[in-house]
Amino acid sequence: MKFTLKSLAYPFEALEPYFDAKTMEIHHDRHHQAYVDNLNKALEQFADAQELSLEEILQQVSKFSPAVRNNAGGHYNHQLFWDLLSASGKKEPEGDFLEAIQQSFGSLAEFKGQLKNKALGQFGSGWAWLIVKADGTLAVSSTANQDNPLMDLPTVEQGFPVLGLDVWEHAYYLNYQNKRADYVDAFWEVLNWESVEAHYKKGLAQLQKAL
Ligand code: MN
Question: CB 127: neighbour CB atoms within 10 A?
């Protein structure tokens, strides 16, 4: 078993009332677990993949099967998502990261509006993203299903994922039903900007290594 599911760093009810405990439990213990199990199963036919990290699999996902694409994406995307959330995290970005947001989008409010548009504009299941691109600028994008900005696919805008917002109905339907916009608004209340900033720095470091 190559990949395993980590426990959440907080209890299921920690993000109430924004993200309800039942949704968190089902989302982590059933949906994310299924991506991990199905990824391990899908990788059985690719002996070479044993050497690869999850990021490396995404970066060359076009060589693999659709099952690897869906489940490697599902595993990476959810790991990132859980890591971004906290009941008591930093509520605003600051410093160099805030400046980068202002340079790329004009203002924090404009960035939030653009991410919301991506989240609402994604037809059906998928993700809305903040990515850092090869030129160091930030951009918003969206992907279908469990696709991810690291994937070498023509339908994906490439970049390093800094923030990912799950817009599958399984992420919000129990609490918000069809009101995806209300779920997006709630996301900002449980987003830990310290974690977003850490992923931004990780992306910048990776880009520098690649140059
Ligand atoms: Mn999900």
Answer: 28
pTM over 0.90: yes
Preceding amide of 17 cis, omega within 30: yes
C-alpha of residue 96 to centroid of ligand 1, in Å: 30
Expressed in angstroms and rounded, the spacing between residue 168 Cα and the centre of ligand 1 is 6
pLDDT band of residue 30 (cuts 50, 70, 90) is very high
> Measured in angstroms, how far is the CA atom of residue 75 from the centroid of ligand 1?
9
* 28 Cα–ligand 1 center, Å: 8
d(CA 115, CA 35): 25
Examine the pLDDT at 211 and tell me if it is beyond 70.
no
The strand pairing partners of 71, in sequence order, are: none
